[in-house]
Amino acid sequence: MKLSVMQENLARGLQIVSRAVSTRSTLPVLANVLLRTEDAGLKLTATNLEIGMTYWVPGKIEADGAITVPARLLTDLVNSLPGSERVDLELQAHDTLLLRAGRFETRLKGIDAEEFPAIPTAGERPTTRIAQRVLRQALAETAFAAATDEARPILTGVLARFEGDRLTLAAADNYRIAVKTIPVLDPVPDTSLVIPARSLHELSRILADVEDPLDLVLSPSRNQVLFHLEGVDLVSRLIDGQFPNYQQVLPQGHTTRAEVDREELLKAVRLAGLIASSSANIVKLQVGGEAEGVTVTAVADVGDNRGQVEASVEGDGTAIAFNARYLSDVLQNVAVERFSIELNGPLSPGVFRPVDGSEYVHVVMPVRTTS
Amino acid sequence: MTLRAMIDGVPGRTILHVDLDAFFAAVEQRDRPELRGRPVIVGGGPNDRGVVSTASYEARRFGVHSAMPLRTAGRLCPDGVFLPVDGRKYQAASRQVMAILRRFTPAVEQVSIDEAFLDVTGSEALFGDGPAIARRIKSAIQDETGLTASVGVATSKLVAKVASDLRKPDGLVVVEPGGEPGFLAPLSISRLWGVGEQTGRILGELGVRTIGELASIPAEVLVRRLGRHGAELRERALGIDREPVSGGEPAKSVSHEHTFDVDTADQEEIERTLLALSEGVSSRLRTAGIRAGTVGVKVRDATFRTVTRQRTLAEPTDLTEPIWRTALELARPETRGIRVRLLGVAATNLVDREQLGLFPEEDPRRRRAVQAADELRRRFGERAVTRARLLRRPLPEPFERDPRSAVEGRRGVRGVGQAAETGEKERATAGSDGRGSPVEGVDEPPAGEAPEPVDGDESEPEPERDPEP
């Protein structure tokens, strides 16, 4: 193996794939990045066996070959090399990578490329395509609601349900649920899969705020999904199991409805949250009733807080308590101007919808308080 | 501030240890005058299996002591009066005594049914110095309950405990500040907390028999032979003990503990005991209308090595099963291959709010069953309903810890109407177990337990058997 690449291209590639490097694995090769010449370029691959990432670095190939070297070390080294320099890479004695850049020369001990797991890349025809900007926004509005603890593994994933030219993403952690429906560019036969939220967080990082589409290759039979963008592949395993039937828990009607400015409510919840965080992080909302608009309050040992938010309220009015974090999560991740809040009393779920009519719904379970 | 106080970093304290004399037997003799002057043995019949809970001083003259098999006691003292354990009666007497103690200071730490530590440092202006308070307490207990207590007065819990044990019954031993090393020096090392069989043997090999001899051994030698425990022992031998009297603080935990009359390595008994303790804790949580976010266990082995482990639950609970499951998982690795002296289950990180869930995992029928059982116990008594696993051999009659610091004292916690009623049946430690993170260590045994059964040991182990079959 012998080739030359530009330092900034190599650095960017390493920065992207190193997100998939396993930090805690019993397999030493998973801490490495695979370098392989392919199609007149250098292919970088890393995996933690949940996701695999591949990046193609343009370069000039003199001799084909492959090697794996410690990802962290290589990334740090390349980042420390002078920019806009050519980096020459050469495999020596089957297990050593020689890097030459300007007046610097480094040799890294590696592990044979044969020991690296096979990571599929997008050779096949895509199942469908989605505009990057649309998917990026949908992930921002849903994936945060997925569970982070492994008590129920299925909830650490995001449900992706394809129906014709629509994709519905749903994430839940037993206390809240976020559901968003977006268009896909090519119709897909009805399919449901559960993708680890961690994989989707990584996908979000490489999606750009552009209309250009990314390709999806669904292979539920192989228990994986592959996302392909120009120069980058991300493949993720799927989570086995049945995602809970979230439609059953979406409330059908409401007895109180309020429309509020998102940023105003977020500000009030954050302020109350500062007080609430010293105890159980509970904030109370008084919506309508005697009071006008929405009143956000928090009471704790350290003190108390009360904030007024302008709102147009219809219905009976009610008081309801929520974990402050669940409120601020939805209010800061969904970038719309106004929200509607639909309530059915203090012990029923609260429903948050953008007033602009976009196909998004967020449900938060309340907290039962003794006072 | 005295020089001593500056060295220890604690202003001179006045600590009392109040220990009721032959408590269970004394209550029986008080209530049945015909038993006075006769050897009374509480624990069961002379042919029963099981062990002696308490022997009156008359019975001790025959060589009967607590934790001795009843049949042995029957042989040694054939004319003795053998009585079953009447937990309810002792409980009532204990509460009466603890109420007396709290007249003198809010800092009362009840460590078992018949003994408590008091920090009276702030009460001296009102009631006189330590010895004066001790005399007033003794006569109040005698006048109002007809029982006698032995009291130790010192600057630390350790020394006060040793002092109260020295001249039983009806004793009063005062150790002046600065006099601790001299007071302890002639006493046997077995009187120190943390000297069990193994430690005693190692110290014996070093030629150490008295606390004074222990204090004269260089710290390095003790650390080499006994590890960190050695350094602590040497401090104790010098009478240094900084542990505060914990009492009067709001509850941060609900915990139940059980000391086995005879140390056990039987996993089945350990599991069943954890179940009963978990049941007690969860029932107490439900009574107070709160849930536990964290479950902890405490395991003390025969050598007094104490390990505590805790884990935060995915969701706060007030049900027995999740508490028991967690306690089992935490205790299993700690109980393997050792003889267990004491087990405890603690609920901490208490919350009085419930985050409702979208996809409840808990079967609603389970909660309805638990509520129905709670209701039955409220109406027909604690024994109206029990678990099949606990049927064959009910757990020891538990007792109430210092009710002032019990969980009902927490701010903002409601629904405590039944606390007194159910509390009677429970043993709860409040406030003293709220440790921050998982801890493992060699703890000092609480003063409620004598380090090892020694001659003339005055402490009653908790009754093991149910008086009502």
Number of helices of chain A: 6
Span of the ends, CA to CA of chain A? 71 Å
By CATH reckoning, the class of the largest domain in chain A would read Alpha Beta
Shape of chain B: globular
Helix content of chain B: 25-40%
Rg of chain B to the nearest angstrom? 22 Å
Query: What is the 3D shape of chain A?
Result: elongated
Structure at a glance:
The complex is a heterodimer of chains A (371) and B (469). Chain A folds into three domains: 2-115, DNA Polymerase III, subunit A, domain 2 (DNA Polymerase III, Chain A, domain 2, Roll), CATH 3.10.150; 128-248, DNA Polymerase III, Chain A, domain 2; 256-364, DNA Polymerase III, Chain A, domain 2, CATH 3.10.150.10.
Q: Helices, strands, pairings?
A:
The complex is a heterodimer of chains A (371) and B (469).
Chain A: E1 2-6, H1 7-17, E2 32-38, E3 41-47, E4 51-63, E5 66-70, H2 71-80, E6 86-92, E7 96-101, E8 104-109, E9 128-131, H3 132-142, E10 157-172, E11 176-196, H4 197-206, E12 213-219, E13 224-229, E14 232-237, E15 256-261, H5 262-276, E16 282-287, E17 294-300, E18 303-309, E19 311-315, E20 318-323, H6 324-333, E21 338-343, E22 350-354, E23 360-364, E24 367-368
Helix pairs in contact in A: 1-2, 3-4, 5-6
Chain B: H1 3-8, E1 15-20, H2 23-31, E2 40-42, E3 54-55, H3 57-60, H4 70-76, E4 81-83, H5 87-101, E5 108-112, E6 115-119, H6 124-127, H7 130-145, E7 149-154, H8 157-164, E8 172-174, H9 180-184, H10 197-205, H11 211-216, H12 219-226, H13 228-237, E9 253-264, H14 267-288, E10 291-301, E11 306-317, H15 320-335, E12 340-351, E13 354-355, H16 364-380, H17 388-391, H18 419-423
Parallel strand pairs in B: 2-4, 7-8
Antiparallel strand pairs in B: 1-6, 1-7, 2-3, 5-6, 9-12, 10-11, 10-12
